[in-house]
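Reminder: ligand-aware prediction takes two inputs, not one.
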Amino acid sequence: MTKLSVNINKIATLRNARGGNNPDVVKVALDCERFGAQGITVHPRPDERHIRKSDVYALRPLLTTEFNMEGFPSNEFVDLVLEVKPHQVTLVPDSPEQITSNAGWDTKKNFSFLSDLMVLFGNAGIRTSIFVGTDVEMIEYAAKTGADRVELYTEPYASLYSQNPEMAISPFVKAAEAVRSLGMGLNAGHDLSLENLKYMHDCIPWLDEVSIGHALVCDALYLGLEKTIQEYRNCLK
Ligand code: PXP
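Here is what comes back for the chain with pyridoxine-5'-phosphate:
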C-alpha cells in the first residue's frame, strides 16, 4: 500500500499571511488524518515562513498517523528532529532562501556528512529518507549512507507528464527498480497531483509513500479537503 502523507506547509503559509491562527494548522492536520491522510509532513525552515517550531511541538503529541519532518540538516533542524522524534526524517539539500526544494542530494559528494546523520537519526529510532533525483549512482550512494529510504524528486516527471507520460515516467521506473534492488524503501514527492499521481502509482506500485502539499491544497479550494484527500487516496489504490 502506498501511503499518502499530506504536507501542510501551505496551510501555515495561509495562516501566517494574517498573523492570527486562521486556519489553525493543528486542526487542519488532525482533519487531514480524519479524512484519510496516512501521514503529515512538515518542512520547518529557519525563517519560519510557513511551519514554525511551535507547530512542530504542538503537532507531535496529537498526530495519530506518521509524522514526517523534512528539511536541510542544519544544526538547528537536527536538534529539533532529535528532540521531537518524528517517525521519519527526510533530508533535503535546499538552502534557506529557496522557495522550495528543486533538486535531490549529490549523495556522493555529501557521503560522509549524510552517513554521520544516518547514524545519529538511526540511533534515535527515527526512520531516515534522503531526497534524490533519478541518477542511479546517487541512489547507490544513498543506500551506502545507511538511509532506510529515498524520496524521489518528482518535479521532472510532473512537468513532462502532460506531453509524454511514458517518457516522463521512464527514468523514475528505472530509479525505483534500483531502489528496490538495493533493499531500500521508496517515497516520492514534489508536484504530484490528481492529474499525474495515478499513472505514477500504476507504474511504480511498490512506492511506500508520497508526500503532497501544493496541488492538494489547491484542489481543496474547489473540492473541499475531505473529498480531495479521498481523491488522492483513490489514485493510490
Ligand atoms: N517532498 C519534499 C522533499 C518537498 O520539499 C516538498 C515541498 O515542500 C514536497 C515533497 C511536496 O511538494 P508539493 O508541495 O509540490 O506537493
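The mean pLDDT is 97. DSSP finds eleven helices and eight strands in the chain. We will return to this case in the review session.
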